[in-house]
Amino acid sequence: MINIKLGRWKKIEIIIYFAIVLAIIINAIIAKDYWVAVVASICGITYSALAGKGVPLCYLFSITSAGFYSLLAYQNALWGNLLLNAGYYIPMYIWGYIQWKKNLSESDGTEIIKDRLSNITRLKMLGIATIIIIISSIILYKFHGSHPILDSITTIISLFGMYYTVKRCIEQWMAWMIVNSLSLLMWIKIMIDGAKAYSTIAMWAVYLFFAIYFYIQWDKEIKLNKNSK
Fold it and tell me: In the structure, how many helices (H) and strands (E) does the chain have?
């Protein structure tokens, strides 16, 4: 049985969350957006919000979001994003839920213990990611994928971002800032080309906001915990 714990929330955070969900639903009705995109967006935003609070329950929403987003990626020939969500995210979400449940704060019991990488490790990961991005861009171009460079960058950085999400490192939010910014631009281009992607665009815009907001929150908490030791 799943023990539902939602962590510590400020009133303004709860208001913002429900306002965003309501806005997506209203926009979807007016624009007659695909229901798949709406469900993926709401589940994805719920995952991001709960992940930002360090709550393991977030992974239950992420699995649903990844499934529907995989369908959207397939429909728009985003092969890197399709492989990322269907072949990597879903298994990682399962692993992440298990890992987060093992690393809950002893003082709180509802949120995970946050951590950060050393500067040297950050540089190493940046170098490795750059090399893999170049190789994957060439491969996606050979397979005639749409937007191969953007697709490659978002895919590879997401791999690292997801790994550090599971490891509870603040660097995940740095990765998500990059991924969310580029994904937002990519889906705006897809919408301009004729696809109905309003809810998906809204989802990535909210993801970007959350990445910035939660990076600041995690940074404050990690520094506070370090100074209290």
Answer: 9, 0
